[in-house]
From TrEMBL:
Official protein name in the record: TolC family protein
A GO molecular function held by the record: efflux transmembrane transporter activity
Xref: PANTHER family: OUTER MEMBRANE PROTEIN TOLC (PTHR30026:SF20)
Keyword Transmembrane in record: yes
Major site of localization recorded for this protein: membrane
């Protein structure tokens, strides 16, 4: 027993040295880094900035346009003119030039309220971009947290496999001592050596998986994939989640549902724009122009002018072959479809929450059951080890007790991980991942 405790002390000491050699990364730090570095989050953030820039009175067509205008027309013609008195004037290569320049203002002051509906639509598109960005953030943060706690699970399994090797090494030593004093056959020693080699193989495979999962987390954090770090050793599971509260939060915060509701508003505003085509369009124009003209023939050889120009234009559709009715019917169908999609997304959300919550409750129960199983397996191993040392139990029974203990530790770790994943899924569906605290 003292020898086993000595090996366990060395094991824990080795883990402490390994942990101190690497930077400790908390789950909060991992989320912070992801929010700052993750490429998909950056792209979603830039897309939202584009939507924000699009919300402007000018983009909606509400503001006037002011342009600088220059027009110049020249010609060289062989010209023949018959004057009023019957005389004829004939000139080859007659040059003519007309030049106009100035500023022109055009302003649509009424278009059936289309411009205002368009402005409201641009604001809704900004909200849609915000909802899509939140969806991207929640998805990536959920991936980061799940991967982080997958590492916690694997770290615990590494410790379990290390413990298995410590016990197997003790078994090899005990079997060898028994063989030397003639109390055991060589076969017992060989079996013990085969088992410790098997345990070593399992440990190496687990270390490989642990290293690859670290690479995956570094990738999600958008940093150098071989950056060394250490993670927490235990799970922090929120066991206080209640389904009615999650549903109430999801109805207000779930990004997918909110995006669908915003899309419905956008289609309603699109219908409003289509209907506006039935009303007249009124535009006004004004400007200040300078004009100059030269002519080789004619009553005026040169003319110049400057001054204000203004006017207005009004038009109203009367008949366009039924296209207006067609466009309105299509827009109404699109509004109806968006209503259906909102109902569908709401029902899907309720279904996902109910299913995920049931999984969450089951996993919480399993964590308690597997924790108890690990305690029983630990006690059984201690008893079996004591009997093995005095030779009152067969090596096969001892190996079975050893494997039962290792498997119980692995199942307990996996149960805690599954419970944590269930918690994360529920909070993601409710739009309640605690980003503000990260």
């Amino acid at each position: 027993m003292k020898q086993r405790l000595f090996f366990q002390f060395l094991l824990l000491f080795g883990f402490a040295i390994s942990a101190n050699a690497q930077e400790f990364l908390s789950v909060e730090d991992a989320v912070k880094i992801a929010l700052e570095n993750n490429y998909e989050i950056k792209i979603a953030s830039n897309d939202l900035k584009i939507d924000q820039q699009n919300v402007s009175l000018a983009n909606a067509g509400i503001l006037p346009t002011l342009n600088a205008v220059v027009t110049e027309n020249s010609s060289i013609l062989d010209t023949k003119q018959t004057q009023q008195d019957g005389s004829i004037r004939d000139l080859d290569g007659a040059k003519n030039m007309n030049l106009s320049y100035g500023v022109a203002l055009n302003w649509t002051i009424f278009d059936g309220f289309r411009m205002f509906a368009r402005y409201d639509q641009l604001k809704e598109l900004e909200k849609l971009g915000d909802a899509e960005m939140k969806l991207t953030i929640f998805t990536k943060v959920s991936d980061v947290i799940s991967t982080y706690y997958d590492l916690v699970q694997q770290k615990q399994q590494l410790q379990a496999l290390d413990t298995a090797i410590v016990i197997s090494d003790l078994r090899v030593t005990t079997a060898d001592n028994r063989y030397k004093i003639g109390k055991a056959a060589k076969l017992e020693v060989l079996n013990a050596q085969v088992d410790i080699n098997t345990d070593t193989t399992n440990l190496l495979r687990q270390k490989e998986l642990y290293a690859n999962t670290k690479i995956l987390l570094n990738q999600l954090l958008a940093r150098e994939v071989n950056t060394p770090f250490d993670v927490e050793g235990e799970f922090k599971i929120d066991e206080s989640l209640l389904l009615p509260e999650l549903i109430a939060l999801a109805e207000k915060q779930n990004p997918q549902l909110q995006a669908q509701i915003i899309t419905k508003r956008i289609t309603e505003l699109q219908l409003k724009q289509v209907k506006s085509s039935r009303l007249p369009i009124i535009t006004i124009s004004s400007g200040y122009n300078f004009t100059s003209s030269e002519s080789s023939l004619g009553f005026a050889r040169q003319s110049n002018g400057q001054g204000l120009t203004y006017g207005f234009n009004a038009s109203m559709p009367i008949f366009n072959g039924g296209l207006q009715n067609r466009n309105e019917k299509i827009a109404k169908i699109q509004v109806e479809n968006s209503n259906i999609l909102v109902l569908q997304q709401t029902q899907l959300l309720y279904s996902q929450l109910a299913s995920a919550y049931q999984t969450y409750l089951t996993n919480l129960q399993l964590t308690k059951l597997e924790a108890k199983n690990e305690e029983i397996a630990r006690e059984n191993l201690d008893i079996t080890l004591a009997k093995y040392k005095i030779g009152t139990i067969a090596p096969l029974e001892f190996r079975e007790a050893q494997l039962n203990y290792v498997n119980a530790k692995v199942r307990n770790s996996n149960a805690q991980y599954q419970a944590k994943v269930s918690e994360i899924n529920l909070k993601e569906l409710a739009g309640n991942l605690p980003l503000a605290s990260f």
